[in-house]
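Hello K.,

You asked for the raw outputs rather than the summary table, so here they are, unedited. I folded two proteins back to back in the same session to keep the settings identical. This is the first:
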Amino acid sequence: MRLVICDTVDYVAEWSAKYVAKRINDFQPNQNKYFVLGLPTGSTPLGMYKKLIEYYQQGKVSFKYVKTFNMDEYVDLKRDHPTSYHYYMYNNFFKHIDIDRENVHLLDGNAEDLEKECNDYERKIKEAGGIELFIGGMPMPSISTLLSPDVTTFNYFFLM
């Protein structure tokens, strides 16, 4: 485990975005080998998403061969509702980068059988080869985490 203590939210955003971009670029994803990224929502990762969009626009990273899986969604909230995680992710990240919409995975909080939806989601993650990098939020102000492929040990903490 590595602990990174940051003085500002902007530093957390920049460091996180640089780390994500480096991991994607070092992986050298292609049509036969996708980088699989687990993503959160909320205020903590928003700055990171803005920086990743900036890096994409500057040609520093591509999401063409990236698959994403978000960690959660509200139940009984329409996808286009301003507080849904679908809305959040598309408006704050996905519509600004070159990711193929078929490679974006979010839970369906309106599924008739939520347990089946969760099981299907886990199956899709396994079929994608597992998550290479998981970015998670913690229920404390200004803390986010990055997890490695086994997703059982913490690699980075960002503390504000």
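The second followed immediately with the same parameters:
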Amino acid sequence: VTNVRSSHYLLGSALGPHPYPMMVRDFQSVIGIEAREQIQQMAGTLPDFVVACVGGGSNSIGIFYPFRDDANVELIGVEAGGHGIESGEHAARFADEKISRLGMLHGTKSYVMQTEDGQIMETHSISAGLDYPSVGPEHAFLRHQERAEYTYATDEEALGAFQLLCKLEGIIPALESSHAVAEVIKLAPKLSKDAVVLVNLSGRGDKDLDTVINALNGKDK
């Protein structure tokens, strides 16, 4: 930014200084309001789980927020596990406590992947939308309050979920959304057949086809 006095940097997520995270949450909560109504019409009940991917966290806070007071609804956010947590090549802010701690980035106080000197670390995800070193402050709050659980899916798991959803449903999910689908695939065998799981497909995967093809052909290494 070369014109600080005459410009203001706005991120395309639930990030930045107050009130921008709240504004994005409220705008995106249309997703959750509609989903909450529709799932009750379809299933006759609220879901047992709501699952969404988390980069900066706009789509996920949008669908989580209308369910925040429904104590029986478990909220699960899925971060980008990249090549695995131990590799250090990921964007799972909550999963790697060795390099992720409270800090300031882009006007937001939240968990930030950083060095001991406070320098922002490089992240990795096959999904561009999840490849960010911090996370929306309301997600940090939900985790601190234990209202939401945060896990992660690796690149490999997301690619597998991408292919499975294409094959079974004919839906091409964004690679971001594929991380949420990957978590549902891991979760489903542990649940009863009557369990209701709502997964947020936050985008379409047409934009990711080249990335997926290259990854499956080993050209991304």
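Residues 26-144+156-216 form a domain with the Rossmann fold fold (CATH 3.40.50.1100).

Happy to rerun anything if the numbers look odd on your end.

Regards,
P.
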